[in-house]
Amino acid sequence: MKSGIDRSIMNTDVRPQDDLFAHVNGGWLATAQIPEDRSRYGSFDILRENAEAAVRELIESAAERQPTLDSAAGKVGALYASFMDTEQVQQVGLSPLVEPLTEVARASDPSAIAALSARLQREGVDGLAHVFVTADAGNPESYIAYLHQGGIGLPDEAYYTDDEHAAVRDAYRAYLGTLLDLAGPALTEAGLDAALGGDVVTRVYALEERIAAAHWDRVAARDAVKSYTRLSRAELAEATPGWDWDAWVDGIGAPAGAMDAVVARQPDVLAAVGQALQEVPVADWQAWLAVRVVDSLAPYLTDELVEAHFDFHGRTLSGTPANKERWKRGVGLVEALLGEAAGELYVEAHFPPAARERMAELVANVTEAFRQRIGELEWMGAETRERALDKLAAFRPKIGHPATFRDYTAYQLDAGDLVGNVRRGAAFETDRELAKVGGPIDEDEWLMTPQTVNAYYHPMLNEIVFPAAILQPPFFDVDADDAANYGGIGAVIAHEIGHGFDDQGSRYAGDGSLTDWWTESDREAFDARSQQLIDQFGTLSPRDIAGESSTVNGGLTVGENIGDLCGLELAHLAYQIATDGAAPEVDGWSGDQRFFLGWGSVWRTVAREEEARRLLSIDPHAPADLRANTVRNVDAFHEAFGTQEGDDLWLEPQDRVRIF
Hints:
alpha/beta, four-stranded mixed sheet, Neutral endopeptidase, domain 2, single chain, Collagenase (Catalytic Domain), three-stranded mixed sheet
């Protein structure tokens, strides 16, 4: 059996005891070139490229066959064809902007602004509050709509205030001016000249700055308890004077009763927006809406608008030199609007049954490892332990793809109407989501497509999900030795289960409810260990940022860091269960060494500095090199490689963080 470890990409001049990430990936890092259309590149991205190319082939085949638009393949082909028809796109020019911008010009009071913002949001234009539908954490047997803070064009509130983002703020204001200039003829035809009089960029930016000042930071916003405020319609209206919720609900097209109760994740932000609706001149709101329309639709319009949109969102925010080829953007659009239709084609062509069977075995062993470890935790008392085991027993794994693929019958497409397809696609998805409110949970629904290279844990559904496309090397190789597979996909499985017990996932009980099932002393013990991890990562800087001035936000990344630590500890125990603790030497490495080398190879990634800085600000995941080197906390790593005091990854045993 092959080891599954690629020697050709290693740098053996760097010892694993000093830097596992560089040891495993250093040869690749020395020659890696980030593609011009990417801001970072690594293991995940390579697999995404493979999936992207596979989906392209399937889509183009469907487009060439021209099956009926009533079929999934026909819809996929028609949407892709509408994006690839550049002659048609240039011919229609700015005309798709005129109708929505005319509606903006007619919005003459705060209620009309609220209604139109919601109507446009239903069709894919960024709005006042992000809306998503999922299980109600207070009653996880039914769906409810969640309202999350929105209304701003920069990545988060810190971009409006922090000194390190000053250049981005300047570039954003310049971008807004460019958008308005390029869309000028459509704005004039729509009758928006009066609303856009004066320094429109300054007014739009000032309105966003006002909204951003009320936003919660990302650490506070991820708090499961603080961000759960269930409100009736009357309570919502009382908490947010100035926001006409009847008009907004009508605009977004919610079915009768769907918004009778909502979860306001940041109710004070909604209140601040309501106050702004009362106090900010309607003309400024019209200008804000006009910018949101043009920015949201720019990727589907003229070459000049596509370039302006990419120049800011790609080059400025992420440092990406070149936009993706048009076919890649076309595949991305199909993935966004018809993801499961494309996924059905992908699964038929690329997902072998043997992969599902092997994965089921891995999941079973990792789950058993968690069961054993929970049973022996010295810091967890009997009462909490019993409830933790009950939660673990209730976990539901999903592997590969949904049992039934999504029905897109109601999505009407026209191969000659790209922007119409985009707007109708977004409306179809909004309507599909809102129609779930109040109904029973669909346990077969997936929140990722089969061709997605990722995995997730859903706390209210208590499920772990592993799409087909991640089940490839270096994560998973059906023909490889157990060690690399447990260090790769095994650690991903354990990571996702670990999210059920991280700082936020642990707030949810086994039935998905936001219920405190911990004793006070056990929660204190858990929080103390979590704080150790926060403090540890708060001192670390990623290699993709020059100097050491930028450190990880330990509070923002703690959930993912707990997931990684669980992934390592529990996947290693699962590997021992699978091999009865007696793994042979392969290619000169012991079983434990191969396990950790497999873990390190998963994080093979390099990023442009602009993207590294952006992610450091907004991403709940730590940078890849630091994730790989979290092995410093694992006793088995130190034993496998014989680390000792003075080695760069050495931590005194009492300083190693162990949660599970």
